[in-house]
User: Fold this.
Amino acid sequence: MKLTAYEQERERQIAKNKELLEQLGITEQVSTFTTRSETPPTKSGSGKPAVKRVKREREDSELAPRRQSQRLRKEEIDPNESPSQKKRRLADAEEKRKKEEEERLEAEERARRQRQPRHEDLDIPTLMPDSEDYEIQELTNTLKSVAEGSIPRQLPVAEPYVFSNTDEEKAEVAALKKRLKNMKIASVNKITSDRIYSSAYHPDKSKDLIFFGDKHGRLLIWNALAPQEEVTDEDGQVIPQSSTGGGKSYKIEPHFPVSSKSSLSCIKFDSINSYNVFTSSYDSSIRRLPFDLKTGSSEEVFSMDEVLINSFDMPPTGNEIWASDELGGLSHIDLREEKGKARRWELSDKKTGCVSINPVKPHLLLVSSNNRTLKIWDSRNLTDMPLIEGSEDTPPTYDLGSVETYISENEGTRLADYPHNKSVTAGYWDPRGTRIVSTCYDDRLRYKRKTFSSFKPFCSVMHDCQTGRWVSMLKAQWSPNPDVYPHFTVGNMKHSLDIFSCKGELLARLQDPTVISAVQAVTCSHPGIVERAASGNASGKCILWAPASEA
Assistant:
């Protein structure tokens, strides 16, 4: 076949290089040059050299034990053995068989326990099985330094956030908008390889300590602005770090061993003592983790039998927990009592996805459900229902029929009810307990006031909430700070973090396409610093938003 001009020039260059290497006496390199006629055969139609597959010799340690037939495993028996030798041989064989059976049963039991929820107290090695000693020490020191600091408790304020005139309110909103629009990406870190399910921002002002929960049950503690360690290459040169920082993150497994059955659905800090963090999981339990990991351990405060807990909330007193679940139930846990004293009410025939406690009037419970309703319940009437017996693994449950009968006979138990067009994914009270924002799959954010006579929204904003299967549900989260104009954060399907006012005005849209290419579905904001927000996505990447001067 006739060579092209390029191939002819290539052949001449190869011949020239061969001749030069032979003159220099470098004969071992000559063999590496091949002409067209020497090119190895190619795979048919691929144009690529065929690769000779060489079987890799495996190490002995890589070889798993091979199964053998009973015939091959049969030991050789001495035909001249005496009766006593035969008896001893049979006894040894029986003892060996029993030992192997015991080992098999122990292995099966360990595997079974690993698939079950853990109800016992868990120490540091159990909580952080894959962490190095220095990481455990770092996290312990970080949490201990926060616990030793002074964080003033923010008491709920009963008065609504109002202004004497419209101009004053406009000025307040304009000032807040200016502060929020100055926020940029201050730190980025892919703290897990799994989807982010929940988040909470610790109130400490000396550190940006953000807690995230992922799909496989890990509690991820991110010290977002912690200085990065110096990393050097083989030549001792310092490798430049990312301009967006990254901070440091730590992984804890407070619930079920890493599994999709242990997704962390909700994270809350103790209302009284912010040095305790509570987490709920799809393993049907709620646990408490103290910041003092050296002397304390993770303990279970509530559990049910295979009922997924979707959300929970705590009143300002910090003594109680109200938890919603996938079967339409609402459970009450008094932390001053034994775990078996909890009670549960079936309030819906479908999932109750979210529960929120009014911070000023804790007896008012806001419950959102997949039955397309948002309801306000008076917890005092629920807890007044006659006591019933439960089992060791399941709290006493008032079924839906009993609850409906009780409501019909006791006016004031269900105070308000507003239907939505589709499933209500979340509804929350603002920090002053006067306003409500709800998210729904009908792509609307609804704003309501605490008026039981008319629970209709006073404002409704279009917002894409169709997250689908692979993105965590969008939930509008109020800023916990009661001293600023009420506003909340919510993810946007266009990869931004949106901040709205309590009256439906878009205050800021935080985004950066050069860094963010996924939906910031899970959001939270700092309880004491206005210009602080965090978000997480389905790939496990988390973002800290802060003023440009601190980015």
